[in-house]
Amino acid sequence: MKYIFLLLLSLALYSSTLQLATSSNPSRLNPILATDSSSSEIAGFLFNGLVKYDKDSSIIIGDLASKFYFKNDVTLIFELKKNVQWHDGKEFSAKDVVFTYETLISPTIVSPYSAGFRFVQSVKAIDAYTVEVVYKKPYFKALETWMMGILPEHVLKDEKNLMSSKFNTHPIGTGAYKLERLEYSKNILLIAFDNYFEGRAKIDNISFHVIADPLTRFLMLKSSAIDIGGVEPMEYERQLNDQFFNSFNAYEEISHSYTYLGFNLRREKFKNPNVRKALSLAINRQEIVDILFFKHAKVCTGPFLPGTIAYNEAVEAPTLDINKAKELLKKAGYTKENPLKFEIATSNASSIRPYAAQIIQHQLKQIGVEVTLRIMEWQAFLNMVVFPHEFDTVLLGWGLSPTPDPYMFWHTDSDRKGGFNLVGYNNPRMDKMIEESQIMIDRDKLSKIWKEMFKIVTDDNPYIFLYIPNSITAVNKKIINVEPSLSGIWHNYIQWEKK
After folding, report:
1. CA–CA distance from 208 to each of 41, 43, 251 (Å)?
2. Cα 420 vs. chain centroid, distance in angstroms?
3. How far apart are CA 180 and CA 44, in angstroms?
4. Measuring CA to CA, which residue among 339, 342, 344, 393 is closest to residue 373?
5. Dihedral angle at the C-alpha atoms of 271, 273, 277, 283, nearest 10 degrees?
6. Using CA atoms, how far apart are residues 130 and 367, in angstroms rounded to an integer?
7. CB 351 within 8 A of CB 214
8. Which end of the chain, N or C, is less surrounded by CB atoms within 10 Å?
9. How far out from the chain centre does Cα 224 lie?
10. For residue 419, what is the DSSP state?
11. What's phi and psi for 187, nearest 5 deg?
12. What is the phi/psi pair of residue 70, to 5°?
């Protein structure tokens, strides 16, 4: 009763609340273990890295670091801000940075983010506010690696098993908000941290409603029960009217993400490149975009973000060729009497992907392929299908960074428990190129080798790259000081106010 009274009192004193929705329960609110979108999104309000991208994702600026510089090609110095507190009032220092690194490389931790630190030779606290990072060799993502959220040494130093620690559901960070309440399948409440080093956020609370059903999330947005939400193109074109836009602003930009159909290359049927190529030739990507997106998307041609130095403009989506696809399947031993059969697994967390799966199912009938669908709740999909690699194919998506790290998705070493090489892609030539690229600092050389990797991956067809959707975000006009940028709307959220 005392807790409830204090909570109600705090909400009364700080009455402005940003109402949001998330499609699933967060699995771990720990930045080094947050691999699902819900966990990552919420942890982003709770933790800080040493550095971050600026609002246009064009340059790297300090976050917990006030200054950073390279002493030489392999030695990176961070000078830390001195006015930073953890949510429990303890002071942030260099010890926390060293502890986070040592935790990430510990054999007791299973995290895909550990790969970003594989070239680090040592991390030392020179003094309470200076950290020296020495790399084994020059590394092209040396700075981006330290965008990882930093953990509190004083809280976790005696933790025996971080993977199952209560910290993952009771986190203590340095972020603008701190966790107040976590009710699974109901509500997650964050409250503004009074002593945040960049100044207290002007909106007092952020309330995440856990709503798995996309339609319910959309109806809540339409009724203003939530303040900010993504809008699918079909909803935007067919279900929103002037009354909605009297209350909401809509911001649209090409998203930094793509959706793909990934083949489990550990399964015999997909080891044959002719099978993968046949399926690629039979899928009409433009038709998927036209049916589902009403011009609010574009066909995806490969693994790196358009407009960056990694993107290969010379690679185009395959031209639909049903006859060639049938020939390749026949060559692989599949006929009308012995058809290729497989399952597409995806999640209902996206309102679009189940429909995309149905269109692909229909398109592949034209070449005699029998596709079954499995549509699952998000956490079950991740835990029972994706991470244990129990699938024929998965319809999934990845976020795209302005500076890609092909190692995480395309290197054989990342085909492991907790790794992001979910499909089991193994190409020795690609591995060698990735390893060579890791120590390249020259941007022109990096651009050339990334573009070569782009073509190799698309030629090998471990994925069928499908589409890059536009991101359409509706924001209640009661939220003021929103400044759209190339990276989206969230870069200045601590300055937002709710009228």
Report:
1. 10, 12, 21
2. 11
3. 15
4. 344
5. 0
6. 62
7. yes
8. N
9. 27
10. -
11. -150, 140
12. -95, 125
Report residue 311 as tokens: 């993107």
Residues 201-220: tens digit of each pLDDT: 999 999 999 998 889 999 99
Helix (H) or strand (E) holding 371: strand 370-376
| Cα–Cα distance for residue pair 396/461, rounded to 1 Å | 15
Neighbours of 376 (CB within 10 A): 18
Length of the chain: 499
Whether pTM exceeds 0.90 = no
Amino acid in the structure at residue 402: P
- Amino acid at residue number 122: S
Amino acid identity of 243? Q
pLDDT at 12 over 50: no
DSSP state of 405: -
Extents of the domains making up the chain: 257-470
Residue pair 248/477 in contact (Cβ under 8 Å)? The answer is yes
Show Cβ contacts of residue 183 under 8 Å, excluding neighbours closer than 6 positions.
Answer: none
> How far apart, in whole angstroms, are the C-alpha atoms of residue 46 and residue 32?
13
417-447: pLDDT as tens digits? 888 999 999 999 999 999 999 888 888 999 9
Residue for token digits 């930094």?
256
How many CB atoms lie under 10 A from the CB of residue 354? 18
404 with 310: CB under 8 angstroms? yes
> According to CATH, what is the number of the domain 257-470?
3.10.105.10
As given in the structure block, the two tokens for residue 1 are 């009763």
Distance from C-alpha of 406 to C-alpha of 411, rounded to nearest angstrom = 7
**Residues 425/415, Cβ–Cβ less than 8 Å:** yes
3-class secondary structure, 134: strand
At position 103, the amino acid (one-letter code) is T
